[in-house]
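Please check this.
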Amino acid sequence: MIRTKLLPALAGIAALCGVLGQAQATDGMSVFPDASRIASIGGAVTEIVYALGEERRLVARDSTSLYPENALMLPDVGYMRALSPEGVLSVHPTGLLVVAGSGPKEALDVLKKASVAYIEVPDAFDHQGILDKISVVGKAIGADAKAAELSAKVDADLRAAQALTEGVSTRKRVLFILSMQGGKILGAGDDTAAGGIIALAGAENALHGVSGYKPLSDESVLSANPDVILMMDRGGDHSVADAELFAHPAIATTQAGKARALVRMDGGYLLGFGPRTAGAVRDLAMALYGDQNRD
């Protein structure tokens, strides 16, 4: 992770991308002067570029950009929240397309001062936020017409997906658990991608009123009392077996624990807020409600 070691690294970065003092100003920039070699940071950003049919412009991606499969052939410049300026700039991009929330701040400050155009892509976790993201990416790479067409399609798909739960009489309370390492539950409150997708699927966030991702005490879990647990389908150190989840003393006493109600979905698909989100909304709504509880 880049922290206090950034200053010594500037000499190497300058050699890669020119003198920092002559860097191109990027504040307020919305269109790349040269969109021939773009480094895309953010899974949804990369998906949008592919959905626009403009993937030939990409020379690198971050490690969250796992879809479509062809994107995996691009050089990986690291995790979006732990970027190394030298790693990003080593692919000699003409433009950096970076989703909001990337970092660390010190790395972004260096990238913004480098002689490479930098455009930030907004990342709001709602219907309009997806359309805005498509618009910004399309404009940045000079594909406005394609972006307008894609945005209209995604808008219609999202409206149709959200309409599936309009008649639901009793909303499910859903607790999204990001991790449970050492038995400590990290849950998602408001202003998170998890909270956003729960709302789009016609359910209630069991942690409504809590901001961001927060560690939860047993009392907090009991108070939330979710009907359903939602998790990413993941492996490695962050994986949690069903038996381990429902054996947790706080989870076991909730409605979700008693019913062993658990939904797992691919993380990028569920939380990406990109072109595939309407499909994720439909799948989550079906998992939560099926054909029941509709007028």
